[in-house]
Amino acid sequence: MAILYLGLLVLLPLTAVIVKGYDQGLVSLRHALAAPGAVAAIRLTLITSAIAAIVNGVLGTLIAYVLVRFRFPGRSTLATVVDMPFAIPTLVTGVMLVALYGPNTPVGGFLARHGIDVVFAVPGIVLALLVVTLPLVIRTVEPVLMELDPAEEEAARVLGAGGWAAFRRVVLPALRPAIAAGALLTFARALGEFGAIVIVSGNITGKTLTAPYFIFQLTGNFRFEEAAAVSALLFGLSFVLVLVTERLVKNREARVSP
Amino acid sequence: MSISATTSNARPSGVQGRSRFVLIAVAYVGLLLLAPIAGIVWTVIDGGSGVVRRTLAAPDVRHAFLLTGVITVMAVLVTAVFGVAVAMVLARDRFPGRRLMSAIVDLPLAVSPVIVGLMAVLLFGRGGWFEPFFTARGIQIIFALPSMLLVTVFICIPFVVREVVPVLEEVGTEEVEAARTLGASPTQTFFRVTLPTIRWGLLYGIALTAARSLGEIGAVLIVSGTIQGHTETATLYIFRALEERQEASGYFVALVLAAASIVLLTAIELFKRKRVRERSR
User: Range of A59's domain?
Assistant: First the structure.
């Protein structure tokens, strides 16, 4: 029953996408990429996802470190708030960003007067991706940090290393696989994000059009073959990333508990 | 103990470094999450109570909330029942292809919701593989509830499975075997032994599923056809309201969804803590 459930619900639809997209070889993909703004959309998605992965890779690690190692008032509140993107609908995230940074709002108006466009521009897309992927790095790094003995850092500090040096020499090497895993997961998740972006970006062809919205447009125009070809490409990339991530996490587990 | 030791030994610069770290963390989270939430709350309050009353009285808004509720409840039921079944197979049986099956469970996490919608269209839409079969029997899949439920279930498959498998792996099968030896039927064993052990993990997975179904947009946007008062969910209503320049209503419905998801988040945190406590026992 379990196999039937997964087979019918997961494998069959995916097969449909791959067959539809590539049963004429690369013709559909070439057609899709020839559409105006197609290549730009894919490039924009790759770039913004990479930025999200890097920024949340760094700041997510910092937040995880703060949550695990430090005791300060409001710590448990911070831990809960950080999980909010798991619960808040992505579309609502987008709506909230528009409510704050939209052209007719005080904050958005202020930024616009200083030449910074957030909504209907690339910064808005990056911001939306940063919000929805915030918990991913934190939640992959946190368990590894908890297992790490703080005594090693203390030893480094006693031996004269500054706080930063102790972190860089002792903590960071141990965290590297987890940070990489979290960042890859962030990238994979950002590649497919639709709800948070659709309102914020304005979906201007050649400017703020992202790959998922491009697929949405193709589907809406009944260009199923082309939509499927681009989908399979995007999906293949994220699936490989998720598999690599699992390998990274599993390797750690294998080392911790032989 | 080690923490207090560090604090007492820390030089002044260390303490400063610490508070700087905390400050950066709080500022970043505040900027990303709290500021936008404040933004939408302020916008709704600014709009006044008239908007709230008008929005709640609108039949299409009411229907949208109802439909979102129906889809969420059904998606939770399906993924919970089948999710536990899949988790029991993954955790207890050893068979060739087990790792592949585990990877398949994770697949939906890597698929963009838009692609999920496209898949449903390819299977059930015009010229789709199964379209002739269902059309011949007069069953409407695309632009109707079945496809909306289908895509939501697809997206939510991993949540229950991923939460229940580790719990089952940890407790092992000794208790189950003991119950069997003592003459309990498989059904009795499940309800008396297995279900109580996975309780918190299952609830955690269900809360994640509910939160995700409540807010699904990409896939549902493609398969539903967004027929007002018919296949329009709460998120689809927000989407349309913003496009039709009815921002005030859209913002209000968005705030309601955000509030619902924050309630779910509180449940999630509670279940997580219970589960951790249970595991450490």
Answer: 2-256
